[in-house]
Amino acid sequence: MRRVARSVEREDHRGEPVDLARLFVDELTWYMREHKVSRADLAQSMGVSAGRVSQILSGEENLTLRTLSGVVGALGAEVEFTLHSVEAREDLAEDHS
Fold it and tell me: Residue 36 in contact with residue 78, Cβ under 8 Å?
């Protein structure tokens, strides 16, 4: 089953800027759940401790692209990014209203 990508809002429900690291961690957590990958499995694949995986998945630290790449590679997954201008997305939303 392919998951439909979520769009990133500029602000969360509290009106604060979206935390891209949190969004990425949410996607990782979803992927791991869907593919039945435990934190211990991920730690073994990455060659790190289970504690390090917990740190990564906590969403509390500023993760580097190298770390994120390592997690994605260990999961045997890939990441797709698509950037759109805010104006184009707002225009699209108005067209569907």
Answer: no
